[in-house]
Design a protein that fits this description.
Layout lengths: L2 E12 L2 E12 L3 E5 L6 H8 L7 E6 L5 E4 L11 H8 L1 H16 L2 H14 L4 H11 L14 H14 L4 E5 L7 H13 L3 E5 L3 H7 L2 E6 L2 E5 L3 H35 L9 H14 L22 E10 L2 E11 L4 E6 L5 H8 L7 E6 L5 E4 L12 H6 L4 E3 L5 E3 H7 L16 H13 L5 E5 L7 H13 L3 E5 L3 H7 L2 E5 L5 E4 L3 H19 L20 H28 L6 H29 L3
Parallel strand pairs: 3-7, 3-8, 5-6, 6-7, 12-18, 12-19, 14-17, 17-18
Antiparallel strand pairs: 1-2, 1-4, 8-9, 10-11, 10-13, 15-16, 19-20
Helix pairs in contact: 2-6, 3-4, 5-6, 9-10, 18-19
């Protein structure tokens, strides 16, 4: 295999916080790799080091010299003054320069310049750049490329940045949470693209379906070390469990041996100076092995919830629009105890607007939101809360409560609860600014849940949370006795938690679908296929009659059609010959090549169709 990346002895720390020590791994050409770890373990930091955005304290990162590399960070740094198309051109500067050079060479008419510029275009695969750019931007639902970056939302900017790195057509692509801010159709398109692309890929993502389908190598950062698994996400889960079990068994065996060696160490003090130096060294190695205490620190979010009365929530005849854009149109629904509803739909169809109306942070144009007296909302929003970076972790939770009441009625102190929630004691007095993005989101989730809600609204809860936290949150939501509304683009999360879906189809059209996301997706595909089939013309069935006498002579109308076809076929053949000559001449601009290629294909299709009809008519007298 051809090595594209080799990492040796990598170390990184921030003050007293050591993320990893002596990381070693390699990535070969064509491998599609994911890094998994808990929040705060250094996933994003590692990608930043590999992309030369950050530097390691120690160690080496060696990429193959002759490859191109592109990096999509979690938070893209785009120029707000540039338009979308200018940003796209800037990110593919070499291609854009090659296009300009080619056009200038054509204008000059210099044969040598034209030849050199054509070679550069071939090398960069730049002939269809504009077409590819429009296709990819269209898939990501970016249509007005004249918009300034500064006017776009964070999600739109992420999509522009994603389009930019894809269009660079790199040999090695690095993606940090590429599915954040993408709707479900875009995620499925990106999944298909990355599956089929002949690139080497390294990414961090929490989307488990995405991981399972795309990746053939999983790298896990655990206890500051790197572990490698040759397979997809399902294989990783299986082999990781085996690794931990083997390590625990080894630790148990080492403990039994350690008891014997400890007895020897106590009874043979004189021998330690001379005869048994190697055995003493082995004793300390054994002691390290026996001290292995790998405990899976799952979050058991068994928090007491506020009592829920009979009346939950009812919305009646809701209307909401922004100018000409209709979000809700006469929508009514009566919520029942224990319901778990997922909300799906394209970006901009009004999913977040709907939950903002329910929680009274936004007023409808008309209609009623009737909330039961006992309902206590817990709202985890996309934006979250702005923590003061100079506050300490423990101060944030103390502002809400000094103790937390669990589901069994027992009381837990704030420090115990933080530890329960995967914030070890040495982080309780850490400043917020020291936390990773995922740790901040986990702290935000903690502050929502510890208020004992009985109606949870989670708007994109999976963004920036690690897979381990998501697994436990899913288990908690499955046993949660209150109501849950979830807006998420994480298909695995939706499949595991929700009972039914509100499908926001745009223009105020909302359908209640009885099933999870995969069932809904299958239903949509079947419906689309059925619609295609019904659109195809079907010959009307006739009652069986005596076989009619079929005339093998051309009618007058058919004779006229036959003569017309002969002329049209001749004209099309001439046009196709002319287009072939022009396309192979090397004198066309990029736009002209695209235009004439489309016309060429249309002409070929038309010729084939007319030739078939000509043959059919020629068999008649």
């Amino acid at each position: 295999m051809i090595s594209f990346l080799q990492v040796e002895g990598l170390r990184k720390s921030f003050g007293d916080l050591e993320l990893f020590e002596d990381l070693k791994f390699g990535i070969d050409k064509g491998e599609k790799v994911a890094i998994v770890a808990r929040n705060g373990a250094g996933k994003t930091t590692l990608l930043n080091i590999l992309s030369n955005v950050d530097s390691a304290d120690k160690g080496s990162v060696i990429f193959r010299n002759d490859i191109t590399i592109a990096f999509l960070p979690q938070e893209p740094n785009l120029d707000p003054k540039k338009s979308i198309i200018e940003e796209i051109h800037a990110s593919s500067e070499e291609v854009y320069k090659a296009l300009n050079s080619y056009n200038k060479a054509l204008e000059s008419g210099n044969a040598d310049s034209i030849q050199k510029s054509m070679e550069a275009m071939d090398l960069l695969n730049a002939w269809d750049f504009e077409t590819r750019a429009n296709q990819i931007l269209g898939q990501l639902k970016i249509y007005d490329t004249s918009q300034k970056i500064g006017t776009l939302s964070g999600g739109q900017q992420k999509r522009v940045a994603l389009a930019s790195v894809i269009l660079q057509n790199p040999d090695f692509l690095i993606l940090d949470e590429p599915t954040n801010h993408l709707d479900l159709d875009m995620i499925e398109w990106l999944e298909e693209y990355l599956c089929n692309a002949t690139i080497t890929l390294l990414m961090v993502t929490h989307d488990r379906y995405f991981l399972d389908r795309i990746c053939n190598l999983i790298l896990e950062i655990d206890d500051k070390q790197m572990y490698s698994y040759k397979g997809n996400y399902s294989y990783y889960l299986e082999k990781r469990a085996e690794r931990i079990e083997i390590a625990r068994a080894g630790a148990d065996k080492a403990k039994n041996l350690l008891r014997t060696e400890q007895e020897w160490m106590r009874r043979m003090p004189k021998a330690r100076g001379t005869k048994a130096k190697s055995r003493i060294d082995s004793f300390y190695e054994l002691k390290d092995a026996a001290s292995y205490k790998k405990v899976e620190k799952d979050i058991n979010i068994n928090i007491q919830q506020t009592r829920m009365g009979k009346k939950i929530l009812e919305v009646k005849n809701l209307y909401k629009s922004f100018g000409d854009k209709v979000i809700l149109k006469d929508f009514s629904y009566l919520f029942n105890r224990g319901e778990k509803i997922g909300i799906v739909g394209d970006n901009g169809t009004g999913k977040s607007t709907f939950v903002n109306i329910i929680t009274d942070t936004l007023k409808p144009d008309s209609g009623l939101v009737d909330v039961g007296q006992t309902i206590h909302f817990g709202y985890y929003s996309q934006k979250g809360i702005e923590f003061n970076p100079n506050d300490k972790v423990i101060d944030v939770v103390r502002e809400i409560a000094e103790v937390v009441t669990l589901g069994d009625g027992s009381i837990m102190s704030i420090t115990q609860f933080l530890t329960y929630f995967l914030f070890p004691p040495d982080t309780h007095y850490a400043f917020i600014e020291k936390l990773s993005g995922g740790e901040k989101r986990r702290l935000y989730l903690l502050t929502v849940l510890m208020q004992n809600p009985n109606f949870l609204i989670l708007d994109e809860p999976t963004n920036d949370l690690d897979i381990m936290t998501l697994n436990v949150l899913e288990d908690y939501l499955q046993t949660f006795n209150g109501c849950v509304i979830i807006i998420s683009h994480d298909r695995f999360f939706m499949d595991k938690v929700v009972d039914h879906l509100f499908a926001f189809n745009g223009n105020g059209d909302i359908k209640d679908f009885p099933g999870n996301y995969t069932q809904y997706r299958d239903y949509k595909l079947e419906k689309e296929q059925l619609e295609k089939e019904t659109k195809q013309p079907v010959a009307p069935k006739e009652k069986p009659k005596k076989a009619p006498q079929v005339s093998n002579k051309k009618s007058f109308k058919e004779k006229m059609e036959f003569e017309k076809l002969e002329k049209e076929i001749e004209e099309l053949e001439k046009l196709i010959a002319t287009l072939e000559e022009e396309l192979s001449s090397g004198t066309l601009s990029g736009d002209e090549i695209t235009e004439k290629s489309i016309l060429y294909q249309q002409s070929k299709d038309s010729l084939e169709e007319k030739e078939l009809r000509w043959l059919e008519l020629s068999e008649k007298d």
